[in-house]
């Protein structure tokens, strides 16, 4: 009977892994080797950065051994090691917030869950798929005592004192029936080559080499130890030596992803600064892309020595989906993680990396637009997954906003699929001054908004911005600038202002108000409505944008939109001052015209109120007093 119980989440996870990951069970070895490699990275870092560890003589390596008869398989490293407390915290609880998030997403569908597991990298516990019992002997660097952690993966775990010659960790698996196939030289080599070939430390396999007599019986047996991975930091090798498959394999290990990457960008910079970067774009957005505590995807190395994989500042947040490695020749090895951010060298590498990524994205977009089929497919996947974070960049990264404004995509009234601002501009009529857009609701609501009627009639394209984030970032974009090759071969730039159609002021291009006489005739009606609505509206105006609908609402150019204000209030911003809409009415509409010849105050109040409420409803705004709306509507219907 075990003395200590797993955290309940661990039990859940164990059950799940064993049931849904089964067909993929060889990944346990990748997980254990990754852990060993991380432990070596950590100690290597300390031995260069921390006085207290400098005396440790350290030849980092990972050793795999097996015994078919005893049914065991062990993975040992001479890395940082764990003491009793580490063992309890790391192997008795779910240490990673990502794993916890994963548990929250669990469904009853085993197949889906196993895909999720691929994305999360479940780590150590996956070894229970192939073992009845696991024994971890570990000694932490700089400490004398070693401990043995053991568990059957069901009843909790035990920790007792043990002996180990030097720092490091040995994970011994007591293999179950299904695990026996892994006590075999060929399958171990095969798995390591497939998943862990580019682990930066040597992985050795110890096995017996038998000689056989002519009857096929073992004559003699010799123990041999071979390195079975290639062991080179892949990003340091010349591009010409590497195949797509090498890049993909490294990515899977680095990015904890079971899928191939969408594409990669491998750059070696020489000159004032010397560094190598290898960046990957995943096919699917990382599961935690919208969590505040997302795990950063880029690792920092200095001269091949791992420094950190937990620094969110290595990439701007809007590029948090990028996976990869930055390896610098010019940073001091003992640079402290805290002051990394102020380091000029790193800042320069970062800036250059961001520029490089954005340029590559643009190249992909351009070759997709030029009709390259493969590029098109990649670009569609890319923008489908990462349009949103790139839009965040529009307000986070002012320095790159021109590049970003060429990457983000929108829906449009003039074309199917994605539209870029450049597409919009190329379709613009010669005399058109502004880029028009509409925000504040889902696609369907926006497309059927009465605000679009006049633009449609005049064949002016309007961008449909139905993504929540559009409302926040687009108003800050203000204008779109583009360099263009001028007639004389020099490039010139042109700038277009963006205008929301649901704002006052966006209607200046829609033409003059109808004839003066008609306007004069409708004036008293506007006055009546204004009086009836009182302070529910900021203003009542005769509209230039309406064709078929009787009314619409717009926001003052300086106000946030009504939908935005409502969203902010729902998010807890209670001190938002109330934003009042401007009501625009269609003078030619019979409902509006019907107010000309009546002085019946109840009827005027009913019609005015219904004109306002229906305009709000169409824009997806919730009515404050729905009962009042229904009552007035019924009175009008009854005549
Ligand atoms: P992950 O590696 O994703 O964090 P694991 O479940 O594989 O999750 O491991 C949990 C933790 O246990 C690790 O984060 C690490 O702190 C510790 N650990 C696992 N294996 C080793 C090892 N060989 N040496 C030192 N620490 C280890």
Structural features, described:
The protein has 639 residues and is of the alpha+beta class. It has 19 helices and 21 strands. It has an 8-stranded mixed sheet, with helices on one face. The longest helix is centred in the middle third of the chain and has 26 residues, at 344-369. The model has no long low-confidence stretch (mean pLDDT 87). Residues 31, 35-36, 39, 77, 79-82, 90-91, 95-96, 121, 123-125, 169 line the site of adenosine-5'-diphosphate.
pLDDT averaged over residues: 87
Biggest sheet: strands side by side, in what order? 5-4-3-6-2-1-7-8
Total beta strands: 21
**Name of the CATH homologous superfamily of the largest domain:** Histidine kinase-like ATPase, C-terminal domain
Which percent band covers the strand fraction?
Answer: 15-25%
| Unreliable spans | none
Radius of gyration (Å): 33 Å
Per the CATH scheme, the topology name of the largest domain is: Heat Shock Protein 90
Characteristics of this structure?
639 residues; alpha+beta; Ribosomal Protein S5, domain 2; Four Helix Bundle (Hemerythrin (Met), subunit A); 8-stranded mixed β-sheet; elongated; binds adenosine-5'-diphosphate
Architecture blueprint of SSEs:
Elements: H1 8-20, H2 27-49, E1 62-67, E2 72-77, H3 84-91, H4 97-104, H5 110-120, E3 131-139, E4 146-151, E5 157-162, E6 168-175, H6 185-195, E7 203-212, E8 218-227, H7 244-255, E9 263-269, E10 275-281, E11 298-302, E12 305-308, E13 323-328, H8 344-369, H9 373-396, H10 401-405, E14 411-412, H11 421-427, E15 434-439, H12 443-447, H13 453-457, E16 462-465, H14 468-477, E17 479-485, E18 491-500, H15 516-533, E19 539-542, E20 551-554, H16 562-570, E21 582-585, H17 590-593, H18 601-618, H19 626-637
Helix pairs in contact: 1-5, 8-9, 9-14, 15-18, 18-19
The structure holds adenosine-5'-diphosphate.
Adenosine-5'-diphosphate (ADP) binds at residues 31, 35-36, 39, 77, 79-82, 90-91, 95-96, 121, 123-125, 169.
């Amino acid at each position: 009977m075990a003395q200590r119980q797993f955290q309940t989440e661990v039990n859940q996870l164990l059950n799940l892994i064993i049931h849904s990951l089964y067909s993929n069970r060889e990944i346990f070895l990748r997980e254990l080797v990754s852990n060993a490699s991380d432990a070596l990275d950590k100690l290597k870092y300390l031995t260069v950065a921390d006085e207290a560890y400098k005396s440790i003589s350290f030849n980092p390596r990972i050793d795999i051994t097996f015994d078919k008869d005893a049914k065991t398989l062990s993975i040992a490293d001479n890395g940082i090691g764990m003491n009793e407390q580490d063992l309890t915290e790391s192997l008795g609880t779910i240490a990673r917030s990502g794993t916890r998030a994963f548990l929250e997403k669990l469904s009853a569908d085993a197949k889906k869950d196993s895909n999720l597991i691929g994305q999360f990298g479940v780590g150590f516990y996956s070894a229970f798929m192939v073992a009845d019992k696991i024994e971890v002997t570990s000694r932490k660097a700089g400490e004398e005592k070693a401990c043995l952690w053991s568990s059957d993966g069901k009843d909790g775990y035990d920790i007792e004192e043990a002996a180990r010659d030097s720092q490091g960790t040995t994970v011994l698996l007591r293999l179950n029936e299904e695990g026996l196939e892994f006590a075999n030289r060929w399958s171990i080599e095969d798995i390591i080559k497939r998943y862990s070939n580019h682990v930066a430390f040597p992985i050795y396999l110890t096995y017996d080499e038998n000689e056989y007599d002519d009857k096929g019986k073992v004559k003699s047996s010799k123990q041999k130890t071979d390195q079975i991975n290639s062991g080179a930091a892949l990003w340091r090798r010349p591009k010409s030596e590497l195949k797509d498959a090498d890049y993909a394999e490294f990515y899977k290990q680095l990015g904890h992803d079971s899928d191939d990457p969408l594409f990669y960008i491998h750059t070696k910079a020489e000159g004032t600064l010397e560094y190598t970067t290898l960046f990957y774009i995943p096919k699917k957005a990382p599961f935690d892309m919208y969590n505040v505590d997302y795990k950063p995807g880029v690792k920092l190395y200095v001269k091949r020595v791992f420094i950190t994989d937990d620094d969110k500042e290595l990439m701007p947040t809007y590029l948090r989906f990028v996976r990869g490695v930055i390896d610098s020749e010019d940073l001091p090895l003992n640079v402290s993680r805290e002051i990394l951010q102020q380091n000029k060298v790193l800042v320069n590498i970062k800036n250059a990396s961001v520029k490089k990524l954005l340029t590559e994205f643009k190249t992909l977009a351009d070759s997709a637009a030029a009709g390259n089929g493969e590029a098109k497919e990649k670009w569609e996947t890319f923008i489908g997954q990462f349009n949103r974070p790139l839009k965040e960049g529009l307000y986070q990264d002012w320095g790159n906003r021109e590049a970003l404004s060429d990457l983000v995509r929108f829906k449009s009234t003039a074309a199917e699929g994605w539209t870029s601002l450049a597409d919009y501009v190329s379709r613009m009529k010669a005399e058109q001054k502004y880029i028009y857009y509409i925000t504040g609701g889902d696609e369907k609501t926006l497309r059927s908004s009465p605000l679009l009627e006049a633009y449609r009639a005049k064949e002016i394209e309007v961008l449909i911005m139905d993504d929540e984030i559009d409302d926040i970032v687009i108003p800050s974009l203000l204008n779109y600038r583009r360099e263009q090759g001028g007639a004389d071969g020099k490039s010139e730039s042109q700038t277009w202002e963006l205008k929301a159609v649901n704002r006052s002021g966006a209607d200046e291009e829609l033409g003059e108000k109808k004839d003066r006489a008609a306007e004069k005739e409708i004036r008293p009606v506007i006055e009546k409505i204004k009086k009836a609505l009182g302070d529910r509206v900021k203003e009542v105006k005769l509209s230039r944008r309406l064709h078929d609908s009787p009314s619409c609402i717009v926001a003052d150019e300086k106000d946030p939109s009504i939908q935005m204000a409502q969203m902010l209030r729902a998010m807890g911003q209670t001190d938002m001052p109330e934003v009042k809409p401007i009501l625009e009415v269609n003078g030619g509409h019979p409902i509006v015209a019907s107010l000309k010849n009546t002085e019946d105050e109840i009827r005027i109040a009913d019609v005015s109120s219904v004109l306002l409420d229906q305009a709000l409803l169409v824009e997806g705004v919730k009515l404050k007093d729905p009962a009042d709306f229904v009552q007035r509507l019924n009175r009008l219907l009854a005549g």
